[in-house]
Write a structure and sequence with these properties.
With about 80 residues, this protein is an alpha+beta fold. It has two helices and two strands, in the order αββα.
């Protein structure tokens, strides 16, 4: 478990292992909230879509855009046949 010390100015340094895990950058805004049970939640606030890349591990196979388009086209073609 990572820990840090509160300074007389109310400042805390986020431990390196936590900064690395959350991919925090200098100047990034953090959002603090307290749960009803007294736990403090800290969330990065100003993430870009690019910063989210790689956070969720894929379990399936990768599909190209052309494969997606082909599947959608096949689905639309199948809809026309169901109505006949």
């Amino acid at each position: 478990m990572a820990s840090s010390t509160l300074t007389s100015k109310g400042q805390v340094t986020v431990p390196k292992e936590i900064r690395d895990q959350l991919k925090l950058k200098t100047g990034q805004t953090l959002e603090f909230s307290v749960t009803s049970g007294g736990q403090v939640l800290i969330r990065p606030r100003n993430r870009t879509a690019a910063a989210l890349k790689g956070m969720i591990k894929s379990r399936g196979k990768h599909v190209s855009i052309s494969q997606m388009k082909e599947t959608v086209a096949d689905g639309y073609a199948g809809l026309g046949r169901e109505r006949d």
